[in-house]
């Protein structure tokens, strides 16, 4: 289990690291950190308020909503650890060290992964990491395939490591993947550099991701299956108003964000939540970090106009 390297990084930082190095160093400082973060947060909010006033006057705002969201996410990074963003153990895809070249390539292609952990007998017995380009190098050659000879040393971290420290370790080790290890040495989860970046900028889709499904699908029984990424604006255009005044003030932009606010956490598959405006949400698909799809129906006695107190209730 590796110790955080923040103090070592700060003592060895050089000017060539530029803005990114300065950013990491700034947010890693412990002395007076809460006060600094509070001051910055207040300045961001002040800029947001001024931007809204300027927008009302027809002038271009200095900070738009997305920019404020990015800054807010960066400010929250210090309170986020590896176990908050990791892929949980049950969802880890790994290959056996005894796998053949053809099967290894087929597995990479099927799972749409460029990197995978490799185990000997079971997942807790990780022997290394493999990159798909190391496998491709063997294609068409007569050389005997030996997966173990191609393995790279995995980065092992504790669940409690702050994501900023983890980013630094990944950069220093020049790796895009880390394994999260529990106190007994077992595999607790897996973190990729994409997971860390998504804590700042949100979900990232690449050319290997499946095409997005239709955002809203009406079912024969009158209920709706809704992609969690569906903008609230689009939902309300097709189905009707839903947000309360307090939810509008919170700038909830997607149905997934609304369901997360209702639950107070990332709900599990099958969890049912009732919104005060008469909508019942059932989570159809979710993992440890994301809500993906929900089914909703409107209760017969639902109010015609959104309620005003913003309170939601959850039920099993």
From TrEMBL:
One of its GO terms (molecular function) is flavin adenine dinucleotide binding. The keyword Transmembrane does not apply. GO terms for cellular component: plasma membrane. CDD domains: CBS_pair_CorC_HlyC_assoc. It comes from the Bacteria. Pfam families: CBS (PF00571), CorC_HlyC (PF03471). Residues 1-26, 296-316 are annotated as: Disordered. SUPFAM superfamilies: CBS-domain pair, FAD-binding/transporter-associated domain-like. Residues 86-145, 150-210 form the CBS domain. Keywords: CBS domain, Repeat. Coiled coil: none annotated. Residues 9-18 have a biased composition (Polar residues). Belongs to the UPF0053 family. Hemolysin C subfamily. This is Hemolysin C.
């Amino acid at each position: 289990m590796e110790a955080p390297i923040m103090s070592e990084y700060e003592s060895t930082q050089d000017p060539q690291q530029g803005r990114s190095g300065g950013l990491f160093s700034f947010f890693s400082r412990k002395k007076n950190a809460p006060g600094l973060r509070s001051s910055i947060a207040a300045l961001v909010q002040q800029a947001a308020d001024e931007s809204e006033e300027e927008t009302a006057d027809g002038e271009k705002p200095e900070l738009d909503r997305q920019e404020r969201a990015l800054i807010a996410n960066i400010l929250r990074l210090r309170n986020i650890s590896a176990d908050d963003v990791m892929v949980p153990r049950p969802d880890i895809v790994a290959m056996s060290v005894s796998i053949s070249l053809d099967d290894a390539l087929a597995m990479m292609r099927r799972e749409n992964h460029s990197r995978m952990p490799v185990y000997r007998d079971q997942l807790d017995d990780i022997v290394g990491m493999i990159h798909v380009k190391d496998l491709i190098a063997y294609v068409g050659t007569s050389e005997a395939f030996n997966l173990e000879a191609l393995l790279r040393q995995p980065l092992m971290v504790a669940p409690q490591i702050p994501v900023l420290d983890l980013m630094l370790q990944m950069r220093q080790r020049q790796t895009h993947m880390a394994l999260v290890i529990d106190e007994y040495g077992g595999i607790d989860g897996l973190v990729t550099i994409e997971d860390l970046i998504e804590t700042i900028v949100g979900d990232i889709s690449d050319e290997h991701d499946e095409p997005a499904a239709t955002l809203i699908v009406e079912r024969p029984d009158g209920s709706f299956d809704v992609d969690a990424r569906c903008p609230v604006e689009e939902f309300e255009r097709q189905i009707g108003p839903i947000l309360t005044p307090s939810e509008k003030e919170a700038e909830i932009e997607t149905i997934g964000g609304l369901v997360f606010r209702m639950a107070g956490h990332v709900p599990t598959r099958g969890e049912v939540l009732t919104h005060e405006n008469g909508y019942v949400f059932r989570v159809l698909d979710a993992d440890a970090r994301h809500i993906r799809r929900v089914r909703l129906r409107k209760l017969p006695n639902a109010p015609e106009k959104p309620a005003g107190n913003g309170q939601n209730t959850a039920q099993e």
